[in-house]
TrEMBL record:
CDD domains: SPFH_paraslipin
Keyword Cell cycle part of the UniProt annotation: no
Domain of life (superkingdom): Bacteria
Annotated keywords: Membrane, Transmembrane, Transmembrane helix
Organism: Thermosipho ferrireducens
Membrane topology: Single-pass membrane protein
Localization terms from the record: Membrane
Family according to the record: Belongs to the band 7/mec-2 family.
Record Pfam families: Band_7
UniProt domain Band: residue ranges: 18-175
SUPFAM superfamilies on file: Band 7/SPFH domain
Name by which UniProt lists this protein: SPFH/Band 7/PHB domain protein
InterPro entries to which the protein is assigned, alphabetical: Band7/mec-2_domain, Band_7, Band_7/SPFH_dom_sf, Band_7/stomatin-like_CS, Stomatin_HflK_fam
């Protein structure tokens, strides 16, 4: 009897435990009773009636779906292979559970269809250089289409876009030629810049040299000018002093005649062929003549003696 009670209590405990449900913080619980939706519960511990109630848990965390590679024709009739990944999160647990049977499969098919539409509007070059544009447009289209399923598409990323092998070889050759061309242009530009800089340097050097020579000539001329002015001032002062000394000494005509002769010696300096004398010198030269006569008389007297 006791054993039967223990067995019954054990089964009751198992049945009671089966009615306890724990919902995690990132989940939502959908409780159905006899196949009919009753309520949605959030994170925490909940109790349901065993055998009558059923809880369906929905994960609200962000998930990623891998879209398999597929061949897509571009606007200029080039077949490319494209694959992508889709990031999504469930915003409405009820609609994600009851409005679509397999939303991941449905989202993948929806992405493949819209990927063909988006890339079909672009040429190959645009397709290869417009990944962000393709991602944004595909995300918008998918987000609008999956809104009724309670799903929000957070991000779409194109993993790769592979053109046909012959197109890739042609692109590789074009890229190589473009890089060779760019390298040649850069080299030519470098030579041009080098020659310009060299010419600029030579120009600057010539200008600096000319400025230096001009400055040197200017300084030499200023030095000569200063020398001449100083000498002239010295000579002027000397003449003034001599003139003053002569007047103070009250010289006779004979003395002036002797000084003129000494001056003529310096003026001629043994090199001049012509000497211009002032008019007033004629009177003085008379004294010179008198002196000459005096010397002659003295010489005659000595000879007679």
């Amino acid at each position: 009897m006791y054993l039967l009670l223990i067995i019954v209590a054990f089964f009751l405990l198992i049945i009671g435990a089966s009615g306890i449900r724990i919902v995690r913080p990132y989940e939502r619980g959908l409780i159905e009773r006899l196949g009919k939706f009753r309520r949605e519960v959030k994170a925490g511990i909940h109790f349901i009636i065993p055998f009558f109630d059923r809880m369906l848990k929905v994960d609200l965390r962000e998930h990623v779906i891998d879209v398999p590679p597929q061949e897509v024709i571009t606007k200029d009739n080039v077949i490319v292979t494209v694959d992508a990944v889709i990031y999504y999160e469930i915003t409405d647990a009820y609609r994600s559970a009851y409005n679509v049977s397999n939303f991941e499969f449905a989202t993948v098919k929806l992405a493949q269809t819209n990927l063909r539409n988006v890339i079909g509007e672009l040429e190959l070059d645009q397709t290869l250089t417009s990944r962000e544009r393709i991602n944004a447009k595909l995300r918008t289209v998918l987000d609008e289409a999956t809104d009724k399923w309670g799903i929000r598409i957070t991000r779409v990323e194109i993993k790769k876009i592979d053109p046909p092998k012959d197109i890739m070889e042609a692109m590789s050759k074009q890229m190589k030629a473009e890089r060779t061309k760019r390298a040649a242009i850069l080299e030519a530009e470098g030579v041009r810049q080098s020659e310009i800089l060299k010419a600029e340097g030579q120009k600057q050097a010539a200008i600096l040299k000319a400025e230096g020579e001009a400055e040197a000539i200017k300084r030499v001329a200023e030095a000569n000018k200063y020398k001449l002015i100083t000498e002239a001032q010295g000579q002027g002062e000397a003449i003034t002093l001599v003139f003053k000394a002569i007047h103070e000494g009250q010289p006779t005509n004979d003395l002036l005649a002797v000084r003129y002769l000494e001056a003529l010696k310096d003026i001629a300096n043994g090199k001049a062929t012509k000497i211009f004398l002032p008019v007033e010198l004629s009177g003085i030269l008379g004294s010179v003549g008198a002196i000459a006569e005096l010397f002659k008389k003295e010489a005659g007297g000595e000879s007679k003696q």
